[in-house]
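Human: If only I could read backbone structure tokens as easily as an amino acid sequence. Take your time, and here it is.
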Amino acid sequence: MTSTEQRAEGAGPFTTRLTWHLPGGGTAVWESRLARRRGVLAVRQAGAAAGRHTSADDLALGRIRRLNAIAAAAFVIGGLLFAAGAGVAQFGSGDATTCASIYFTGGLFFTTGGYVSLLQVVNAPRHIPGGEGRLVTRGWRWWSYEPTRVDWLSTFVLFVGTLVFGVDLLDSFLQGLSVQQTNRLIWVPDVIGCMLFLISGHLAFVEICHGPRLCPGFRSLGWSIVAVNQLGSVLFMVSALAAYTRPATAGLASAGVANWGTLLGAVCFAVGGLLQFGERP
């Protein structure tokens, strides 16, 4: 006897939670984030309380642990470096080359964290329709194209955002730029990168809330990680808007807001990385 799908939940074309009937009674629930981050299904046997059942094999669990640790460490280090760069700009020498070097190094870690987060989705254990609520592990892949999966789309947009930030950070080393060139080569990529971070965070909320509406989930570690990262993205956007160079004065709209927004936003991502260490099998 095989299980049958009972209910699918999500938003639009995205499915983030599936519930199956189990042979002999009871249900198994697959949730996108729990499966890829912890390799588990929620199982309720007939007449029993709900419990956690690890369905992924040792290979999958090992992958999840390693990828999670690398991504978490990358966001912690990248966040701390961005905070250090903002601190130097606000309280230190303010030397443009020094700040650009610190930011660029931090950006490399952010890009690493973004790509490894995408690898977590690409190589996550998958559920099998009609397979009695089991998870299976596929062969290792460095890339996939799955735009109908909200977790893939969220991490892909995040990764692209880190690459766009890389353009901004590289251009910040250029000397002798006019106001128009500064805004076009540095400010515009900065704003686009922040917008992509915000879109990625919204999609992450869609995944964890199983719909377009924001859900209360303060007791959920995954929800807390998504929330603190989204707060960091909002602060990054505030910082980017304040970093616009005014043509009339050739100065930033608000250097203080730009530096503090970057510092606090970076701290949020570092905290999110620390919390992510706890989201493991």
The CA atoms of residues 10 and 210 lie 4 Å apart. Strands lie at 4-11, 14-21, 27-31, 40-44, 51-54, 126-127, 135-136. The radius of gyration is 21 Å.
